[in-house]
User: Which sequence fits this backbone?
């Protein structure tokens, strides 16, 4: 009886031991350091979404670890480059960096992270002040000088930008950010050959970081070296065959080369992969328009505008071709009743000088062919300005 009672009394503990033996030891909860290591691995593998998620978990476990928070901000910024639909990542980077500076005001990591986030949220003057403070706190840290260069670029202070970027590379030739930012400072001052060399160095250091290729491509297209641009995009697709932006940029590059067949195929491939990507419809519409497929162009531009509406794109970021070329396609089909509202909507978008010129020309053509529209009703076209070309960027 005593033996039976002893067995019954020990049953729960014996059962736990048996279950433990069968199932193995319990899985330990990952700590912040192990999560950060996994996040870093994902970053070097080019999986920014996974890296962001892992750094977010690590930061939640150790909210005062400035090293983890710095890397979290950095991958959020790189992740924001994936398209207009990812701007929220730059906004999140700003939230994290603001908290860092508030709690760690004397940390160069916090100041540099805040500078980077401010740049991506279009606050260059504040960014320059933060980056300058980071360089004062740690004069020998390459990334602090690199982000100061990036802030100077946003302020159009090109000489200072290139000086700071060169300091960054001299301090750490193996810094991807420093190489990338030096390349941008060169490319945006017309030194594309030198910029390409720096981009290639950055790519050698991190061949799976897509942003580097997307910033390299405009350098090649500026030199009309379209084959090299296509090869750069093919390197992105070798890493990720489903990269919609790469297929869209191939479409754009072929279009500039006037290889319309390959351009249309690339745009259609992008849409097949993601039917919610407005840039692909914008570029496809342009190809169709120049191939005189005006009905097809109208459908593409219409979809482009609907997607931007659905995704709540701000008017300042809208794709202008989807408006004025949409109107021009209707005008060429002698349908000014549809064209005029599109031209009027185009004027609500932040048009380039060229886009505004095409819009007014379309309105004048409609006025010339439709008696119900008078030239007095049309606004006066502004005198074109000799504004500098937009800087090389991720978009």
Assistant:
């Amino acid at each position: 009886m005593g033996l039976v009672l002893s067995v019954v009394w020990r049953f729960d503990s014996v059962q736990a031991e048996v279950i433990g033996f069968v199932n193995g030891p319990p899985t330990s909860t990952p700590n912040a350091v192990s999560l950060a290591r996994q996040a870093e691995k994902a970053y070097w593998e080019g999986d920014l979404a996974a890296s962001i998620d892992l750094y977010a978990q690590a930061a939640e476990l150790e909210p005062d670890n400035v090293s983890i928070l710095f890397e979290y901000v950095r991958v959020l910024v790189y992740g924001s480059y994936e398209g207009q639909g990812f701007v929220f990542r730059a906004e999140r980077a700003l939230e994290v960096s603001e908290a860092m500076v508030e709690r760690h005001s004397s940390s160069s990591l916090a100041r540099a992270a805040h500078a980077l986030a401010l740049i991506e949220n279009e606050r260059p003057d504040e960014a320059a002040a933060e980056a300058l403070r980071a360089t004062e706190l740690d004069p020998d840290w390459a990334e602090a000088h690199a982000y100061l260069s990036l802030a100077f670029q946003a302020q159009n202070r090109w000489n200072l930008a290139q000086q700071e970027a060169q300091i960054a590379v001299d301090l750490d030739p193996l810094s991807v950010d420093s190489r990338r930012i030096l390349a941008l400072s060169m490319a945006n001052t017309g030194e594309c050959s030198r910029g390409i060399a720096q981009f290639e160095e950055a790519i050698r250091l991190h061949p799976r970081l897509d942003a580097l290729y997307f910033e390299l491509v405009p350098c090649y297209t500026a030199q009309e070296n379209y084959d090299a641009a296509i090869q750069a995009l093919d390197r992105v697709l070798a890493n990720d065959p489903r990269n919609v932006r790469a297929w869209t940029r191939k479409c754009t590059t072929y279009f500039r080369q006037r290889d319309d067949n390959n351009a249309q195929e690339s745009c259609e491939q992008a849409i097949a992969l993601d039917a919610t990507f407005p840039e692909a419809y914008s570029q496809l519409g342009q190809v169709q328009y120049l191939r005189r497929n005006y009905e097809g162009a109208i459908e593409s531009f219409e979809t482009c505008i609907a997607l931007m509406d659905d995704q709540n794109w701000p008017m300042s970021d809208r794709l202008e071709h989807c408006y004025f070329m949409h109107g021009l396609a209707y005008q060429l089909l002698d349908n000014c009743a549809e064209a005029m509202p599109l031209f009027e909507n185009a004027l609500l978008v932040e048009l380039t000088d060229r886009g505004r010129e095409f819009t007014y020309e379309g309105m004048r053509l409609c006025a010339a062919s439709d008696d119900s529209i008078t030239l007095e009703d049309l606004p006066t076209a502004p005198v074109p300005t000799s504004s500098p070309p937009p800087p090389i960027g991720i978009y």
In short: The radius of gyration is 27 Å.
